C-alpha cells in the first residue's frame, strides 16, 4: 500500500457491537472500541504516529451504527478504498468501517456535530438479533402510545442533573454541563420490539439510559408515577432517578454533521 507523507485528517464512519467492550475510549487493561481500532490502524500502517477521536464516548456495552471518528495521521493513503478494506480485514469481526473520506486539516469533529440519534430497543419476547445479539429482553407487553406520552416531558432544554451519571464533584466544577436539549423522542413499535428514538445535539453520560429507565419505571407503576418525572427533572437538588436501563439495548444510530 502506498502513502503520501503529508499530515492529513480522515473521517471514518464506524459501526460496532459493543458487547464485551469497556466502551469507546481507551482504558488501561480493558478491551475498548478505540483500542481495537487503533490496533488495526497500527497493523495496517506499521506506525503509531496517529491519533483517533470519536464523536461520542459510548459506554461499555453500547453499540453504534454510525460513530464518527477522525484519524489524524502523518500519512495519507493514496487509495482510500484499499485502505478501508485493509482496516476492515484487520479489525475484529464486531467492528466495521462503513466509509472513509479526507477532510480539511482544520476540521473540528465536535464542533461539526449537528445532531446525534440514539435508539434504545427492548423486546417483548426473547429474540436472537443477528446484528445485536445482546438486545435487551423486557419480557412484558409495552404500549408505544403510553410510553410516548411519558417521554414528552424530556423534550426541550432541561437540567438533566438527576438523569445523568455525572458526580456531584463533576457538576460542581461544571454547573452548566448538565443542561442539554432533546429535540425529539419517538417511540416505535415493530413486531415484538419497542424502540425509543432520541435526538439531540449532545448527551451526558448515562443520560439516555436513565431517561429510558425512568420511563419504564413509571410505566410499570409499582413505585413511580408520571408526576415524578417532572419532579426529578425540575428539581435538580432532589436526587438522581435510581433506575438506569442496561447498556445492551442502546445504539448510536446516526450522527449528522454540519
TrEMBL record:
Enzyme class of the recorded protein, top EC level: isomerase
Key word Isomerase present: yes
GO molecular function: RNA binding; tRNA pseudouridine(38-40) synthase activity
Keywords: Isomerase, tRNA processing
EC number: 5.4.99.12
Domain Pseudouridine synthase I TruA alpha/beta: 15-104, 151-254
Coiled-coil annotated spans: none
Recorded superkingdom: Bacteria
Gene3D superfamilies from the UniProt entry: Pseudouridine synthase I, catalytic domain, C-terminal subdomain (3.30.70.660), Pseudouridine synthase I, catalytic domain, N-terminal subdomain (3.30.70.580)
Active site annotation, chain numbering: 59 (nucleophile)
Record-level GO BP terms: tRNA pseudouridine synthesis
Protein purpose: Formation of pseudouridine at positions 38, 39 and 40 in the anticodon stem and loop of transfer RNAs.
Oligomeric form and interacting partners: Homodimer.
Name listed for the protein in its UniProt record: tRNA pseudouridine synthase A
Species of the source: Entomoplasma freundtii
Gene assigned in the entry: truA
Amino acid at each position: 500500500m502506498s502513502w503520501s507523507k503529508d499530515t492529513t485528517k480522515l473521517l471514518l464512519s464506524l459501526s460496532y457491537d459493543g458487547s464485551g467492550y469497556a466502551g469507546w475510549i481507551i482504558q488501561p487493561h480493558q478491551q475498548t472500541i478505540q483500542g481495537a481500532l487503533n490496533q488495526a490502524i497500527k497493523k495496517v500502517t506499521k506506525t503509531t504516529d496517529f491519533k483517533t477521536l470519536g464523536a461520542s464516548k459510548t459506554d461499555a456495552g453500547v453499540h453504534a451504527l454510525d460513530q464518527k471518528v477522525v484519524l489524524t495521521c502523518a500519512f495519507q493513503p493514496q487509495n482510500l478504498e484499499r485502505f478501508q478494506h485493509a482496516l476492515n480485514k484487520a479489525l475484529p469481526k464486531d467492528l466495521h468501517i462503513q466509509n472513509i473520506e479526507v477532510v480539511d486539516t482544520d476540521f473540528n469533529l465536535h464542533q461539526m456535530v449537528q445532531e446525534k440519534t440514539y435508539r434504545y430497543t427492548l423486546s417483548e419476547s426473547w429474540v436472537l438479533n443477528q446484528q445485536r445479539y445482546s438486545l435487551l429482553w423486557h419480557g412484558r407487553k409495552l404500549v408505544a402510545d403510553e410510553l410516548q406520552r411519558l417521554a414528552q416531558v424530556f423534550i426541550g432544554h432541561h437540567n438533566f442533573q438527576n438523569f445523568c451519571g455525572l458526580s456531584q464533584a463533576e457538576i460542581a466544577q461544571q454547573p452548566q454541563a448538565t443542561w442539554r436539549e432533546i429535540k425529539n423522542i419517538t417511540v416505535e413499535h415493530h413486531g415484538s420490539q419497542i424502540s425509543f428514538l432520541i435526538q439531540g445535539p449532545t448527551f451526558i453520560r448515562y443520560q439516555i439510559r436513565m431517561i429510558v429507565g425512568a420511563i419504564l419505571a413509571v410505566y410499570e407503576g409499582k413505585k413511580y408515577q408520571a408526576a415524578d418525572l417532572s419532579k426529578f427533572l425540575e428539581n435538580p437538588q432532589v436526587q438522581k432517578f435510581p433506575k438506569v436501563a442496561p447498556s445492551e439495548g442502546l445504539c448510536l444510530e446516526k450522527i449528522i454533521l454540519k
